[in-house]
Amino acid sequence: MGALVGGNLWVEGLFARAMYLSLYKMHQVALHGGWKTALGSASRLLTRRTEPHVKLH
To answer: Is there a contact between 9 and 2 (Cβ–Cβ < 8 Å)?
Structure first.
């Protein structure tokens, strides 16, 4: 669709991903509360940086 109107499909993909993540976070806040969602997001950021990307076993 982006090629039809001269847009960039990559930008549309990033926008769609950002909207999906936003919706998912709002869902988590509704279920667990803001504090637990914030702590979970922070721990996920730390874990993603410290754990290897590939399984070694």
So the answer is: yes
